[in-house]
Write a structure and sequence with these properties.
Length: 123
């Protein structure tokens, strides 16, 4: 996961620089770079906080003779799975378009006939 997110970060940084060279001021580019960095750091932090206990148990279990109780192992596994439940809320913190799409889906408005005209972004 760290490798994948590092690659995503590098591509995002390259795209922001390309957009910045074509468009406006460097302060706007810096703002986008800062936001991309914060978003990826937060998402990676949440992922690691939920999955690290499980992976640590997985690594140390063979060295301690497989003595970790299955209940603890299962609990940490489910804590890792809970990360997938949290992801929509994490993305909603950073992206207004995601927040709006999430609200539309949860409220059931997605089934309305005029949904194809809905704009998710402010621009």
């Amino acid at each position: 996961m760290l490798g994948i997110y590092l690659k995503i970060y590098m591509v995002a940084q390259r795209q922001v620089r390309t957009i910045g060279l074509q468009n406006t001021s460097s302060s706007k580019v810096d703002k986008y770079q800062r936001k991309a960095t914060q978003t990826l750091a937060f998402i990676m932090g949440v992922f690691l906080s939920f999955w690290t206990p499980f992976f640590i148990l997985n690594i140390i279990n063979p060295f301690i003779g497989y003595s970790i109780p299955p209940t603890l192992f299962d609990s940490f596994g489910w804590l890792g799975y809970f990360n997938s439940t949290i992801n929509p809320f994490v993305y909603a913190i950073f992206y207004s378009w995601f927040r709006k799409a999430f609200q539309i889906i949860v409220s059931g408005h997605i089934f309305r006939s005029d949904m194809s005209d809905t704009k998710l972004s402010d621009t």
